[in-house]
Amino acid sequence: MQYNQFAGVYTLLLTPFNEDLSIDYKTYEEYVAWQASFRPQHLFAVCGSSEMTALTREERIKCASLAVKNSGGVPVFATANLEASHSDEVEEIKALEQQGVSGLVFVTKGLCDRPDEQFEYLSSLAENTSLPVMLYEFPGMRPHLMDASVYGRLVGTGRFVGIKDTTCLLDKIKEKIAVQGDSNVLQANIPFLFDSWKEGARGVVATPTACGADLFVRMWSEWVSGNEEAAEKTYWQIINLDNAIDSGFNVSAKYLCKLRGINFRPINRGGLTISPARMRSLKAYYDWAHYEGIL
């Protein structure tokens, strides 16, 4: 199967914080370069895993700018429509364009129970940029799950190159795949990741990429080369990673990044912490995965 330039692995970028909860930009730059070193198809700055709704607009724009600067040429996408007013959204779109991002991400903005309004909102917002736009069913703004018919209509405008699907239901994933056309249904749910690719999904944008991008790049490479057996075995390893970090995400992912050599503090602005027992569990997982050559 042939894939277009917007298919593949979108690696999520966490936001490292200092003890006073200011952003640790030095660690962020090192982390972006580390993520980019695995050569995913894209980096996704300013996302849910980045705690994007807890960042100011200035912080979001700076993170996107530093992601581009340290990406090693890997294209960077960033969320652009978190502001409350249309004019502020347009300002952020223009500001992100000026940072050199390769594409924008629009969240579904809690409009999924108003399909016609949602279609008009997203299609009109896309008129303010010439960059490719990815859609994101962001769980932080509910109702967030877009009906496949709306997705199909948006794809038909020619302005949207894909969607981060967070339905976590294979039947709903297949409904979007049926109308994706030349766009890309990208899977956020790890249990159905391999199944969704077999059904025609064209990539992944999932939380474990924030600390295990190399596994996803490996699985995608095996998949596109036609080695389905190898891809499934790597998928098994990804399931273990997902289970390891699921409790306490995203501080659990930050702690795993620390074990992998990036100076993350396991804290976030939401007040989430990680217990000594969870740290010990993650350390045991990492020691096993490192010993086995998985991470």
Overall SS class: alpha/beta
CATH homologous group name: Aldolase class I
Strand content: 5-15%
| C-alpha termini separation | 28 Å
Arithmetic mean pLDDT? 97
Short description:
With 295 residues, this protein is an alpha/beta fold.
Explain what this protein looks like in three dimensions.
- 46% of the residues lie in helices and 12% in strands.
- The protein is an alpha/beta fold and 295 residues long.
- The chain has a single domain, classed as Aldolase class I (TIM Barrel, Alpha-Beta Barrel).
- Helix 10 crosses helix 11.
- The chain is globular and about 50 Å long.
Task: Using brief descriptors, characterize the structure shown.
globular, TIM Barrel, 11 helices, eight-stranded parallel β-sheet, alpha/beta, 295 residues
How are the elements arranged and paired?
Layout: E1 8-12, H1 25-36, E2 42-45, H2 57-69, E3 76-79, H3 86-98, E4 103-107, H4 115-126, E5 133-136, H5 148-156, E6 160-165, H6 170-178, E7 184-187, H7 193-199, E8 203-204, H8 209-224, H9 228-246, H10 251-259, H11 276-291
